[in-house]
Write a structure and sequence with these properties.
alpha+beta, 5-stranded mixed β-sheet, 4-stranded mixed β-sheet, about 20% helix, about 30% strand, globular
């Protein structure tokens, strides 16, 4: 079995241009092969992508109602960071780019995290964990 699985998180957005601009300000890029006037493929890592779709395109994939992120939470998307400083840098970039802070800073010494809402109201957490605090798998 190949352990290099890819993940594509599909998220609806009301304003694709604003969403693209936000993520570029945070420091991320987009894969043009999978982006068009209705979808922007946000590159999170070599194997993780967020397919940001305008609501019309997102509706092509579901018959369910699209969550109103002002009143409901459809998911909390957590990203790992290489250091506490990277947590702060990424979240500060998000806040400076049009995101808003959500929740309190979590600081447990060995684990540190902060969270933000993107301009569409999607909840993102950025977390660092000291690798020496993680027990090796048996």
């Amino acid at each position: 079995m190949d352990n290099a699985r890819m993940i594509f998180v599909n998220l609806p957005v009301k304003d694709l241009a604003t969403t693209r601009s936000f993520w570029e300000k945070v420091g991320f890029s987009f894969n043009p092969q999978f982006s068009d006037e209705h979808t922007a493929c946000l590159v999170i890592s070599d194997t993780i992508y967020a397919m940001l779709m305008d609501e019309g395109r997102f509706r092509d994939f579901t018959r369910n109602e699209i969550a109103d992120t002002a009143t409901t939470r459809e998911a909390i998307i957590a990203l790992s960071a290489a250091s506490r400083a990277e947590v702060d840098q990424l979240v500060e970039s998000a806040l400076g780019g049009g995101g808003s802070a959500v929740g309190e800073t979590m600081d447990q010494g060995f684990m540190y995290g902060r969270a933000f809402l993107d301009p569409e109201g999607h909840h993102w957490e950025v977390v660092w964990m000291d690798p020496s605090a993680v027990e090796p798998a048996a």
